[in-house]
């Protein structure tokens, strides 16, 4: 599946294997931005990106490309089944758009592409975790997701195990 956003001039579709480095760079940039740490690196990212692009275990990567075919935005997702739904749902794990290309509808196009993919696969729910409230762009990010049809269901708690 591949969609062209005529208003935005960007095209979206599944990431190709040759776009793995661009996807890894985008995920690294996302984490650096969220953590406010310009030197953050993710060990093992290359293999994880390759697995997701290959669609392993329900994971996947959508990209938005500009007119020259350059990757302008990336959406990483996973698919899992919850007992509470008795059905599969998708989780947007990463969503990032090149800073100079924001507010042009690129992320909205990626979410629309994911919606189409879910419809084709019979997946009827999409979830996403927001960045921490201390993140400077948190209010704009929340506004973006609400405008895209998401509703807030409560904070997330996590625990890292060593
Ligand atoms: C959130 C994000 C993916 C939106 O991408 P985008 O292509 O600019 O989104 P769209 O053009 O479809 O919609 C723009 C809206 O996104 C929201 N937004 C959130 N953060 C923003 C930012 N730093 N810059 C611009 N828009 C932002 C705003 O609501 C904006 O609407 P506005 O232009 O009327 O203020 C992008 O800003 C981004 O990569 N931010 C940093 C990472 C992040 O927060 N990712 C999501 C959580 S994992």
Automatic annotation (TrEMBL):
Annotated InterPro entries: Acyl_CoA_acyltransferase (IPR016181), Bact_Acetyltransf (IPR050832), GNAT_dom (IPR000182)
Record has Acyltransferase as a keyword: yes
Transmembrane segments: none
Key words of the record: Acyltransferase, Transferase
Lineage: superkingdom: Bacteria
Annotated PROSITE patterns: GNAT
Entry-linked SUPFAM superfamilies: Acyl-CoA N-acyltransferases (Nat) (SSF55729)
Gene3D superfamilies: 3.40.630.30
Domain N-acetyltransferase: 10-162
Keyword Acyltransferase annotated: yes
PANTHER family registered for this protein in UniProt: ACETYLTRANSFERASE (PTHR43877:SF1), AMINOALKYLPHOSPHONATE N-ACETYLTRANSFERASE-RELATED-RELATED (PTHR43877)
Protein name: N-acetyltransferase domain-containing protein
Organism, as annotated: Streptomyces virginiae (Streptomyces cinnamonensis)
């Amino acid at each position: 599946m591949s969609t062209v956003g005529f208003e935005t001039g960007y095209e979206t579709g599944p990431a190709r294997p040759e776009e793995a480095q661009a996807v890894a760079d985008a995920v690294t940039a996302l984490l650096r931005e969220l953590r406010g740490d310009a030197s953050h690196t993710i060990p093992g990212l290359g293999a994880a990106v390759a697995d997701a692009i290959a669609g392993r275990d329900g994971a996947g990567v959508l990209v938005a490309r500009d007119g020259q075919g350059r990757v302008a935005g990336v959406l990483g997702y996973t698919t899992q089944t919850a007992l509470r739904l008795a059905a599969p749902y998708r989780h947007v794990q990463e969503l990032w758009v090149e800073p100079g290309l924001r507010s042009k509808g690129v992320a909205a196009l990626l979410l629309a592409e994911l919606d189409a993919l879910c419809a084709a696969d019979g997946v009827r729910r999409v979830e996403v975790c927001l960045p921490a409230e201390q993140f400077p762009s948190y209010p704009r990010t929340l506004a973006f997701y609400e405008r895209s049809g998401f509703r807030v269901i409560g904070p997330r708690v996590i625990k890292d195990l060593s």
